[in-house]
Amino acid sequence: MRWQRGARLVVAAAGVGCALAIALHFRARPMPVAAPPPVKHDPAAILETGRGQSLQWGKDGKEDWRVGFDSMTGYPNDRNKFTEAHFVDGKGERQFEIRAHYAETQGKSTRSAGPADIKLSGQVRITTSDHWLIQSDTATYSDATGVLTMPGPMTFARDRMTGEGQGATYDRVSGVLIIQNQAHVRETADEQGQGALEANASKMTVDRPKKSTVFEGATRLERDREILSADTQTLLLTDDEKGLRQLGMRGHASVVPKPGAADAPPDMRADVIDLSIYPDGRTLQHAALRGAANVQLASATGSKTIAAPSVDLQLAKDGQTVTQLNGTGGVTVHLPPTPDTPSARTITAPVLQSSGTEKAGLQSAVFTGGVVFEEHVAASGSTPASDRSATSSALSLKLNGDLGAVDEADFRQVVHFKDGDVTAHSDHATYAEGKNLLTLDAAGSKSPPEVVNGTVTVHGDLVKLATDTHDVLATGKVDTKSLPAPPAAGAKPATPGLFDGDQPVYGVGAELTYESGAQRATYRGSASERARVWQLNGSNNEVLGDTIVVVQASNDLQATGHVESTFQSDPKPAKSGAKSGAGNAGDSASAPASYHAKASELKYTDASRLAHYVGGSDPASLSGPNGTTTAKTIDVYLAQASRNVDRMVADGQVHLTSDVHREGKGDHLTYAASSDEYHLTGALAQAVLPQSSATTSQPQCMLYQARTLTFAGNGSAAASSDGDPVHSLSWPCGQPIK
Known about the structure:
Elements: H1 2-25, E1 47-49, E2 52-57, E3 63-69, E4 71-75, E5 79-89, E6 96-108, E7 115-128, E8 133-142, E9 147-158, E10 161-171, E11 176-187, E12 197-201, E13 203-207, E14 212-222, E15 226-237, E16 244-257, E17 267-277, E18 284-297, E19 304-315, E20 322-335, E21 343-357, E22 361-377, E23 386-401, E24 406-419, E25 422-432, E26 437-441, E27 450-453, E28 456-459, E29 462-466, E30 472-482, E31 505-515, E32 520-524, E33 531-534, E34 542-545, E35 547-551, E36 556-568, E37 594-605, E38 610-614, E39 620-624, E40 627-631, E41 633-638, E42 645-657, E43 663-672, E44 677-690, E45 701-712, E46 717-718, E47 727-731
Antiparallel strand pairs: 1-4, 2-3, 3-5, 4-5, 5-6, 6-7, 7-8, 8-9, 9-10, 10-11, 11-12, 11-13, 12-14, 13-14, 14-15, 15-16, 16-17, 17-18, 18-19, 19-20, 20-21, 21-22, 22-23, 23-24, 24-25, 25-26, 25-27, 26-29, 27-28, 28-30, 29-30, 30-31, 31-32, 31-33, 32-35, 33-34, 34-36, 35-36, 36-37, 37-38, ...
């Protein structure tokens, strides 16, 4: 049957399967062979392995240390060696990674799950979560202190900053990098092309949490605009650490403008300099200098120097324009010559305070506590060099942008000025250097300003002195005193003219102009009072006028407007047989003769010994001991060796009178003192002469008429010189000529 055949096949297959199973179970088995142990490269090692990494977990269950390597060798006492090591510290605020060709760890850290110490060599590279990249050939790391130590050459980089040095430490806990020797830092410019920096120092400390960097030992920082040097420099960074906020310099500190830099700051030097920076992180805003401070301000007017124990200055946003400058403890300012002021100036005072604006620069400077102002004028052509000085309690300068551009200097309280043999004194003075003009006023003081120019002393309510020429202009209650000028070597003393040559001459007026080179003094009166020049030698010598000009060197004098003059002749012995005449000049027995003149103009020329009087609406007049002469012009000639009248010449409407009944009229009159004769001419010369031969009690006079009359002081008449007859007739004494 078909199902039986199928059953037989199934039974047969089952039997074969059982046989195969029994055969496999009872067949012979081979013996097992043990694998050979790995070969160790270091017999002292307890573990050697190839590439891999190890994770260390902290107590909080978070990753603490991760170590990657190409190979690792383990030793007793938790010592391990790694090749191509890569350490990652995942603990703390500042994570960092260490890579090195070779690393050796020792012990277990007491404060983390990592090793206690790590020795690194071969292209050691440290990176931190705050963007430091530090590289060295060798280094050690102590997990107990968190300090990475690099004994040899190293480099570092962070953002735009790179550098190198010899020997360094990095404290991953505090974030402080210290380079022990030969520190060199470079910082590239920002995206605006600014902020580049290069620094060199013996030691550098970077404290990132405090955002500070300290350079020590002969430090030098080169920035865009300046070079900063000091024994120690401390830099405080902005919050974003991309710029400076403050910079402190200690020991031999200096800020020097970088050659060729635009808008460079002033040159500054001191024992200590503290700098504040504008918010841009680059531009100097304020500088405080202490100890032997020295500041040089460069500008178009030259380099100015300010030296003091303490100096503070404020700069505008351009980093160059000074808007405030103060000095204390004894300030010395040196100002160079300028095109407008071609003299070098030095100002010293205990205190200086100056201020200005960002747009205009310095506008004022005030020196207080006792000021000394010195000025040196260099030689120019035939003009020799000269030195000027001034002292006062205080000095204010009006400035035009910087200390060298002085528009005006204002001296206050106890002002003394000296320039060669010229001195000036007042309680207030202004000095316009560009105009070479010193102006002095009393400023409420009872003592008027005074200028002494050689032998001339000038007082006035307001006195102006030209410092280049020493000319003087004085106004308001002017008075002067002129001492006799000493004669030149080998020359004889001056002969008395209108004034004695050996006595002081005084002058007053509402205004005086004194020209120093010509030694010419011009006095001007006021509407209510004329100018006056006189001597106090008992001779009553004086000249009054609206304007009086006195030339000291030549003894010449000129007066105009309402002129009056008085001079006294020298005493002389009476001539043998001489008698008092009836003219306007004559001999005196012994006493000096006094002469008084009135005119619209007087001109005295000492070389010719001539006093020339000119009348105006009224005729000129000259009154002497024996009478008065009037005329359009009167010339008085003095003797060459004395102030005695040698001769007198009158022209135009001549009229002479005397108190002894003598009178004369004519067109021209000449008097000769040597002969005591008058020579009167005119279309009709007339003379009334008293008759000395009269014996009656009533005086007798004669009227003489001719074209020319010559008569002597004794009253006798002579014939006319041209032979014309002299007409005479009796004339009542005292009756004027018609």
